[in-house]
Amino acid sequence: MKIMRLIHPLAIALAVTLAGTGCRHQAPPITKIPGSTPPPITDQTGINTIPVAPENQNVTGTQIATAPGDLFEGMRMDTTTLATYTIHFKFDSAVINSSEQANLQAVASALSANQSDKLLIEGNCDERGTEEYNRALGERRALAAREALSKLGVDPMRIRTESFGKDKPIDPGHDDSAWAKNRRDDFVLLLPNIGT
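Now predict its structure.
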């Protein structure tokens, strides 16, 4: 009987504590990437929105002119010519490793060989992270490659960037090996239509 009198107040205290705290949903913490945009801002509805840097701002904050979309209209996509020059990134990073410089130089050389060709840089991520976060990271990766190519003498007005986030994996696996292959920038040569 004494035990019941002791357990009853404890049970009530525990119930009150649990009811007061409940199961609150907390958003996962945001990982800060050097040179990235500010952390998400919550709008009036309480939904997180990702602030997007202006399209002509690269990952280091310097300004590079952005080519208008109509400069790329009607061009044919060649996904094979530059496919061997894909560059890869470390996890959660948009920094181009020095080991990727030879690939960037090869892309720059291919573009300098024919001034009528243009380039599409497709930024990609592995499957980890939210859709919004990976879209932003893929764009930063593509912009980093555009900046690097402009330093190698390629006119940035000949380069278009697009982020696919985690939507175009090369390897469908769910391990470190697959993820390393999917963190990349693909280079697509844009050729003028025959007769233009």
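Strands lie at 41-42, 48-49, 76-78, 87-88, 118-124, 159-165, 184-191.
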